[in-house]
Structures are given as structure tokens and as C-alpha cells.
Amino acid sequence: MARLHIVSAGAGKRLAAKLIDMIIPTVLTVVGGVVGALNISVTRLNDQAVSIDSTWLLVWFGAASLLSLVYWVLLWFWEAKTGKTPGNLLLKIRTTDLKGLPPGILAIFVRNLLISIAFAIAVVGGVVLMISNLWDKNQKRQGWHDKAAHTLVFDIKAGRDTLTSGGIDGPASFAPVQLPATTTVSSPVAGRQPVAAPNQQSSAVPSDSAQFAPTPPQQAPQSPGAAVSQPAVSQPTGPQSSAQPVVISPEPQPNPAIAQQPTVIPGFEPQQQASHNPNQWQPPADPAGTAGWLPTPGEPHPDELAGETKFRPRASAQTLKLIFDDGRIVDLDGAALIGRNPSGYDGEVIDQLIAIPDESRSISKTHLHVRVANEGLWVTDRQSTNGSAVIGADGVTNRLTPGDAVLAPLGSTVRFGDRSLSVAKA
After folding, report:
1. Which parts of the chain span the membrane according to its record (predicted)?
2. CATH 2.60.200.20 correct for 320-425
């Protein structure tokens, strides 16, 4: 199974990798100096004068120095493009930029220049510089030379190789799939029946796309056993306006069986049963009496008097555990803001403010808004600079669009800037 987390290389591996890189130029220099020294010629002119010819020493030492220079230049470009050196390959570490991508020529030049100066002043100084990430309060990620060059060093044996997997955030091919747009569906209002569009006949069963108009009042029949049909509204012969649809009620066909033996329908009085037309849509029975309500001009529907529907937020039934990459654990049962120094909007209700120390400034001041729900942790990016992503247990990375909430289920990882947290049940 592919590793999803990233691990910073330890100080020992960083120092050992650099010492391995220095073996070849050191050997070249020593060999050139020794061979050159062996070819020094000494000529005695007299009892008091001696002539020393060091030409070959200069030749051999100069050739060794030139080869060493070529080696360092090739190594410089190789590490800038791939993050690899002989020591990095042997110890399985890689040099990257702050996004986990190839560091670049300028960054490696600055980094190697500081290392060379430190070793030239004193060997001990170079060793201290190489292990200076031990004093980095931000997860021991960067040495002093890394901070100056804006580079990182990752252990690809213990974690993911960001150079081959799309950087710290993961490959872009794992972007979320666009979901189809939803379609708004309307529903019929009690006491109203559909209005057919001009030049179209209305259906006996209301559809979602139909408009609804008041049902014309029905006249009671003269006798309970007589079948009564609805008079159809004739369509005008003149031109119609699209803003004034014509109401057409389907005229039912007389049914002798229904006329002789009226059907008993629950919820209707005898007179209503006699006038009920089974082929015409009727609103469901309403004990409150609003189903048979017929609108009059200027009179509101009884349901409208109750005001708009209000939603009451439902509290989460669980508490989640946020496990940060530095080992810090935070129990959360509501909403929280995460960042270097998070603060909410005016009037925003927040249960916790979780401050994350980050000297590299990869995390924004207010980076994430998280909210606990029964489904997991809903994560929203608050217009951060370096972005955020949710990495599922299956390895799929979902990059966050600022302002859009994305669900992080239990077992998933949320990456924000160069930091990350895991979602678990408390």
C-alpha cells in the first residue's frame, strides 16, 4: 500500500548524505596532492643551495581540483532538478522546495554555498550546520541553510516521495470529480390544481413542472344519486397572451355505475361523495380544513400565516479526535478554526480556536474551518494561501476549493499548508 504521509529526514541522515557526497572530491584532491608530491624533483646546486621543482604537484593538484569542480557543478544541477545526490540515493532522502517539488538551481546554490563556507571555516562548523534542524521548533524540518534556501529534506523510505507524487498536496489527477447539477422540483399546493400551458391540455395527474391555479368551486347536485359533471371553460377564439394561461378542466365521461352506486370515499361527506369525480385530481384530506380552502383575492393561505419554516441546528452526536502531525491531540465536538492565529468573522459562532505554530509561514492566519457532524468532519478552506486537501483512507486526494465544505470521514487526513491532521473517533 502506498504511503500517504511525508516524513522529514533526520539530522543523522542529512549529515551522512553530505559526507557521502564529499567522498569523490576529497579522494580526487588527496590523490592529486599525493601523486604531485611524489613527482617533486629536488636538485642540489651546491652544498648550500637546493632547487625544488613542484611543477608536477601543481599539475596534479590542479587537475584534481578541476575534476572536483566539475563534479560539484554536475551535482548542483542534478540535485536542483531531481533532489538527488549520491548520498541522498543511498540513504533514501530527497531535497525539495517548500511545496515538495524540485528545489531549483538558485535554492541549491544558496544551500551548498552556505555548507561549503561552514566546512571551510571549520569542519565542526559544517557538521553543526548540517544537523541544525535539531533546533528547529517546527517539527525539526529545516536546518539553518534550509531556511535560507527555502528547502526541505524528506525521508522517502519512511514516508511518501513528494517529487514523484505531485508535491506535498499529492497528484493533481486525484482532483474531485464534478458532480451533476441538481434539478429544482416543485410540489403541488393543497387546494390547487395544475394549469395547462396555452394550446396544451392539462393532465388529470399533476406533474412537477406544472403550475397550479385555484380550483373552481363545484356546485352541489340536485339529488344525491345524480352524476354531475364539471362544465368546461371554453377557450377564447381571439389571440392568447403567454402571461394569461387558459384554465381547462377535463370533462369527465358519465359513468352509469358510478351514478347508480356512489363510491364511498373516506374523508368526504355524502354530498361531496356525490360530486366527487374519480378522474379528477383531488387534494388529500386535511383534518385542519385547509385542503378544501379556496383562495379569494387578497386572502392569504392559512399555512402562510404561520410564517416561514425555520431550521434549528442539530448538535453532533459524537466527539472527534484531531491528531496533528506533531503528536498534538484535540477533542472536538463542535466548530473550530485552525491557523497560525485564527479569528472568526463578526458574529460567527465558534467553539474552539486551534493555533498551530508554523515558522515557515505555510499556514495562513485563519486556514481552516472545521465542524463535527455525525458523518465525520466537515472541512472548509478559508481562502488560505497554500491551499488544503482531504486525503481519504483509500489514498484519493480531494483538493479543497475555498469556501466549499468537504467531508473528511473517520480515518482520513486533512493537509493544510505543510501540516496535516488525522480524523479519528474520540
Report:
1. 22-42, 54-78, 105-131
2. yes
Closest CA to 383 of 345, 412, 331, 349: 345
Cα–Cα distance, 371 to 133 (Å, whole number):
35
pLDDT tens figures, 379-417: 999 999 889 999 998 889 999 999 999 999 999 999 999
Pairing between β-strand 368-373 and β-strand 376-381 as defined by DSSP bridges: antiparallel
Give the torsion sign (CA, 286, 288, 292, 294).
Answer: negative
SS3 168: coil
Domain extents in the chain? 11-163, 320-425
pTM of the model: 0.45
Long-range contacts of 60-69 (CB under 8 A, 24+ apart): 60/32, 60/33, 60/35, 60/36, 61/29, 61/32, 61/33, 61/36, 62/32, 63/32, 64/28, 64/29, 64/31, 64/32, 64/33, 65/28, 65/29, 65/32, 67/25, 67/28, 68/24, 68/25, 68/28, 68/29
Q: What are phi and psi of 246, to 5 degrees?
A: -95, 130
> What is the Cα–Cα distance from 251 to 280, expressed in whole angstroms?
9
**Is 102 in a helix, a strand, or coil?**
coil
- CA geometry: angle 297, 299, 302, nearest 5 deg: 145
- The answer to whether the CB of 114 falls within 8 A of the CB of 129 is yes
Rounded to an integer, what distance in angstroms lies between the CA atom of residue 103 and that of residue 11? 19
The alpha-helical segments, DSSP class H, found in 276-416 are none
